[in-house]
Amino acid sequence: MTALSIVIPTLNEAEEIVAMLTRIQSWRQRSVEVIVVDGGSHDGTPQRVVPWVDIVVTSARGRALQMNTGARHAQGELLLFLHADTWLPEDPNGNILALLTTSHHLWGWFRVDITGHHPLLRIVALLMNLRSCLTSIATGDQAIFVSRDQFWQLGGFPEIPIMEDIAFCRLAKASLSSPLCIRTPVVTSGRRWQRHGIWTTIGLMWGMRLAYWLGVAPERLVRWYGDLRRGV
Fold first, then answer.
1. Which of 30, 97, 98, 215 counts the most CB atoms within 10 A of its CB?
2. How is the chain split into domains, by residue range?
3. Which residues pair with 58 in a beta bridge?
4. pTM surpassing 0.90?
């Protein structure tokens, strides 16, 4: 059994996925399993990733559904869930892997940086890191990891259309040991901030999390999210 499985949900990521996967080949060289779970891409994503991963599977569309599907195929004792637009740090000496697999912590995440030249993106990343440290609630951009046994004891990711990462962290915070935050950052794409405007995206994401915290159902949130992104 391998020590770690990396699970990557994808949907139409053919343009960028190979560049991301090349970054984790040093992990694969240390017997880390890499699993891509595609949610119905029509741009050839599943075919593009084949040389770079160990397993490619398909599932119904939805990040929580896809990540749970990948976890069912995983052989690793530790699961790491990685967004397709987030790059793990290269680990040629295995130092990060050793920290992940020898720590007594049962779950955790990485600090995050955001690509892009706008100075506000640095502030957004700083606030994300500060918030996760203060609340023990991380987002999927931060590459959440968890013991496979504990993941399934918690029921996996709640299969809701949005906020599955927040919901899972709430469960883990209530049931598991304190989380481990890896100081070496992952790097997530600033594309959504650049595409929709930095202030608009900041307001949208923080507003959605506040609404979820106040009890708004994820099914309603995902409708709002779609409407706001379309400018309805």
1. 97
2. 4-191
3. 38
4. yes
